[in-house]
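Weekend entry, working from home. Most of the wet-lab plans are on hold until the incubator is repaired, so I used the time to fold the two sequences that have been sitting in the queue since the last round of cloning. Logging both here for the record. First:
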Amino acid sequence: MNTTPTPHIGAKYGEIAETVIMAGDPLRAKMMAEKYLDNPVQFNNVRGMLGFTGTHNGKPVSVMGHGMGIPSIGIYTYELYNFYGVKRIIRTGSAGAYHPDLKLGDVVIGIGACTDSNYGAQYGLPGTFAPTADFAMARAAVEKAEAMGVRYKVGNILSSDVFYGDSADGWKAWQKMGVLAVEMEAAALYMNAARSGNEALCICTISDSLVTGEACSAEQRQTSFTNMMEIAFDII
C-alpha cells in the first residue's frame, strides 16, 4: 500500500534521499540546501517545513527542517524512516552548554541523549531505554572535526521538553552526571532510529552557556554554526 505523501510530508516515495540532514529551523534547512547541494529540488512545504533533495559531491542527500521539540522531530523522523526508506539522519542544531569547558561555537557530538520526556514510554519496555547515536557516524564526525581543527566534545546530551524551566538550577543535576549540553530533539531521533533499525546522529553547536550566562550574537550564529554543517555533509 502506498503510504506517501504522509500527513506531514508532501513528497512522493523516491523524492527523498536515503540520507537526510535536518535542522530545527526550516529556513536553516533552506540555507543548507542552497549552500551545500547541487541542483536542489524542493519536495516539501507542508506546514512550512521546507525540504530539498539534491547531490553533494555526487551523492544524493536531502535536507529538511524538523521543528522544535521531541513531538515535532518525532513525527518527521518517524515518517522519513518508516515511509520514505530513509536510512540515516543527521540533526544539526544549537545547544546550551552544561560543561564549563565548552565555549560558544564549540561543537558537541551527542553519542547519547538523556531526556526528561516520556517519549520512550510508548515502547512498553521493562526498564529505561538509553538512546544512542550510530557509532560509525559519530566516529566519522570526530575525525572530521579534528581535521578541521574545530573545538569539540563527545558525550551525553540532554533532550529536554522544557525551554523555559521553572527551576533556575535544575540543569545542575544533569551537569553532575556529566551531561555536556542541552537541546530538545536528539532522544526522539535516536529512539526512532533504533526502533526502525536505522542510523542517527546529532551534532550541535554551543549557542549559549548555562555556566557563564554567555550567548551567541546573530553574527556568531551565522559564522560558527557552519562548522557542524561542514562536518555533517562530509560524513554522509
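Second, folded right after the first finished:
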Amino acid sequence: MTLKIATLSQIPPIAERRIALRVTPPAERAIRDGHPWLFTDSITRQSHEGKAGDLAVVFNRKGKFMAIGLYDPDSAIRVRILHQGKPVAINTAWFEERITAALNGRRSLEATRTDGYRLVHGENDGLPGLIIDRYASVYVVKLYTAAWIPHLRTILDAFRVVGPKSKVEPQRVVLRLSRMVQEQKEALYGLEEGSLLAGPIFDGCSLFQENGIQFEAQVLRGQKTGFFLDQRDNRAMVEELANGRSVLNLFAYTGGFSLYAARG
C-alpha cells in the first residue's frame, strides 16, 4: 500500500433537505432506549431517497421528532443514530462537543505515560461507525460506513478547534476503511484506504507510548489501524504474571505482549 494524498474538495456538501422517516413501534421503543442503529426493515415510510451521509430524521407516530442520524442506502443498518430526544443541529459545534467528551473520558491515560489509545470508539461515544485511534501525533480515522465520508471535513474542523485546547492536536490524519466501505467506490469520491487527510507526507510509521513502553505502529498497512489498542489491559496483566517465567508469544504481530512480559 502506498500513501495517497487526499483532497476533500471533491466531496459534495451535505444535502440541506433532511430525509423524513417513520418506523415500526418496536423501532420507536429501541430508539427511545438509546439503540444506535435503525435497520432497513424497521422503516415504514420515507420522504425521499438519499445518498450516504445525508441526515435522516425519525418521527414518531404522532409526527414528533425522535432522532437524527446518518443515512446509508447501501447498508442494512440504514441509519446510524447521532442524537435522540430534542432536535439539534448536527454541525461543527456539535462534533466539537462529542469529541471533547471523548477526550475527557481518556484524560486519565495521561498519568500512565500513554499517548496511543482509541480516542473515539464509535457507538460508545455516540458516533456510530466512526473510529479514531491516536498514535501520539498521528490520528487514524477508520470508517465502518460510507455515511461518514461527507462529514470528514466537519470532523477535521472540529479537531482543529478541540485539539489545541486539549493539547492533542494531530500532526497527521490517516483514513482507513472497512472492507465493505472500500467497495463503495461511488460513495468515496476518490478517497481510498490509506489516504492522508491532513499533514505532511510520511512513511506510515508512528512511534507512541503505552504505559511507558514505546511501540511503532504501521498505520497504513497494519492490522486494524496499526495496533491492537484494545489489548492494553491484557498486556499489563501479562506483565504482572511474567516475573520468573519463560514466555512464548505465538503470532506476536508487534510483539506487544512480549515487551510487557520482558519488563515484568
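Plan for Monday: verify the second prediction. The chain has seven helices and 14 strands.
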